[in-house]
């Protein structure tokens, strides 16, 4: 903000507006005659050059101007929600859910049939994943080099279906036989080198504490204090929350699921069993792949599809819970119904991705009740649209949505929710400015 005081007693204020958030400017003028306070609120959320505003003060000698960032425009306004939807790449941004609404209120509106486990449908999902994954491996084996990226994309998406099957098993929504669920869940996670029980324990906490500061085990914003305290790692953090974010689940996988110190004493034995299964698969499966196909074959048949899986793992997770208007809150302010219904995003993807990934992107009902099997999520979402539709955040995957997340949703701020890196450390945020230049803005 630039300020100047003229001899005539006029104050000129020039404010460079942010492209996304409103700005509240509080100006305090002190003089022998008293103190005057002037406020501008809810400035338009548009890009503009610096504008000069003329304010007349009768008696002014000293001026102190303070710019205080505030949250995005009020979501109470339908006009603001529509404008933010277009700006962020959403189809709809839901209006705030009233404080009095509870999770029980929402759950009771769902049809009982969406909670029913159907072993036939569960088996069908296994057959879809096994068939599509086998087809993917065949495509990799037969495809010329220039078609390999397509084969890897298909196979990585297909193996993501195995993750969704294990995901249902972890939530006890796959089969009525709980021992069978644990066995299938463990086997489904093995090609991904993912330990089933450690992931299950962490994921349960994500559901219990969705978008709760410090407690949510999925995505968390960057903390300004931590960011400032590790200057040597700043560039890595900026890349991790910017260009590399679609693969950041790899870091989460490694840091959160193999360290026994991160688990409660009553969880350790089950964690050790899962880790033993994963290490056995690596010790047997990887040498077999290398023996049959060589190191290049290991890269072609395992590593590249695995990277494709992590692309979807990262992308799904950040799209489900990350947007400039979706807040993270401290435990004393957190509201379960608001976080699960109002703070979770439904996103439509191309139909082949939906089929191979068993509708995991129909995510709001899954957060209302993890007991809903993946094959019933669409019916549950239709019910939520009928009863709670005006509160839902919905989108169809598009470049503007991804660009918003990758270039804005970085450092935690209580008032704005997020502050982008290029505002916090503009001299170090070249990866973010690069994304802003090169990423498409189609919605």
From TrEMBL:
InterPro entries, alphabetized: FA_desaturase_dom (IPR005804), Fatty_acid_desaturase (IPR012171)
Pfam families from the UniProt entry: FA_desaturase (PF00487)
GO BP annotation list: lipid metabolic process
Lineage of producing organism: Eukaryota, Viridiplantae, Streptophyta, Embryophyta, Tracheophyta
Gene encoding the protein: LOC104246884
Domain Fatty acid desaturase: 144-391
Subcellular location(s) per record: Membrane
The organism of origin for this protein: Nicotiana sylvestris (Wood tobacco)
Transmembrane segment boundaries: 146-166, 271-289, 295-312
Keywords per UniProt: Membrane, Oxidoreductase, Transmembrane, Transmembrane helix
Record CDD domains: Delta12-FADS-like (cd03507)
Family statement drawn from the similarity comment of this UniProt entry: Belongs to the fatty acid desaturase type 1 family.
Official protein name in the record: Omega-6 fatty acid desaturase, chloroplastic isoform X1
Molecular-function GO terms, alphabetical: oxidoreductase activity
GO cellular component terms attached to this protein's record: membrane
């Amino acid at each position: 903000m630039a300020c100047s005081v003229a001899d005539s007693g006029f104050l000129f204020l020039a404010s460079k507006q942010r492209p996304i958030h409103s700005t509240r400017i509080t100006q305090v003028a002190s003089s022998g005659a008293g103190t005057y306070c002037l406020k501008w609120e809810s400035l338009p959320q548009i890009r503009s050059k610096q504008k000069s505003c003329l304010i007349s003060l009768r008696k002014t000698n000293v001026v102190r101007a303070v710019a205080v960032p505030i949250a995005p425009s009020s979501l109470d306004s339908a006009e603001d929600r529509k404008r933010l939807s277009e700006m962020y790449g959403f189809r709809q941004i839901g209006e705030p859910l009233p404080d009095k609404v509870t999770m029980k209120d929402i759950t009771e509106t769902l049809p009982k049939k969406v909670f029913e486990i159907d072993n036939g449908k569960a088996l069908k999902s296994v057959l879809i994943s096994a068939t599509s994954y086998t087809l993917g491996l065949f495509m990799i084996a037969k495809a010329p080099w220039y078609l390999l990226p397509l084969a890897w994309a298909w196979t990585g998406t297909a193996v993501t279906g195995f993750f969704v099957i294990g995901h249902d098993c972890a939530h006890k929504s796959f089969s009525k036989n709980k021992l069978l669920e644990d066995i299938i869940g463990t086997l489904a996670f093995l090609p991904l080198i993912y330990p089933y029980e450690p992931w299950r324990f962490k994921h349960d906490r994500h559901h219990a504490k969705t978008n709760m500061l410090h407690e949510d085990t999925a995505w968390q914003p960057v903390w300004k204090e931590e960011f400032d305290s590790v200057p040597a790692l700043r560039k890595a953090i900026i890349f991790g929350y910017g260009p590399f974010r679609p693969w950041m689940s790899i870091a989460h996988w490694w840091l959160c699921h193999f360290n026994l110190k991160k688990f409660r004493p009553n969880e350790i034995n089950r964690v050790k069993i899962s880790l033993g299964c994963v290490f056995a698969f690596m010790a047997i499966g990887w040498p077999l792949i290398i023996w049959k196909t060589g190191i290049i074959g290991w890269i072609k048949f395992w590593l590249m599809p695995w990277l494709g899986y992590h692309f979807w793992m990262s992308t799904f997770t950040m799209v489900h819970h990350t947007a400039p208007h979706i807040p993270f809150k401290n435990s004393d302010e957190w509201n379960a119904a608001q976080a699960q219904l109002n703070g979770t995003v439904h996103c439509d993807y191309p139909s082949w991705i939906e089929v191979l990934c068993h509708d995991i992107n129909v995510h709001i009902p899954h957060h209302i009740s993890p007991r809903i099997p993946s094959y019933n999520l669409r019916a549950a979402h239709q019910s939520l649209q009928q009863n709670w539709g005006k509160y839902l955040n919905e989108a169809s995957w598009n470049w503007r949505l991804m660009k918003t997340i990758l270039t804005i949703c970085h450092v935690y701020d209580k008032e704005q929710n997020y502050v982008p890196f290029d505002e916090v450390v503009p001299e170090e945020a070249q990866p973010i400015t690069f994304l802003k230049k090169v990423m498409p803005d189609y919605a």
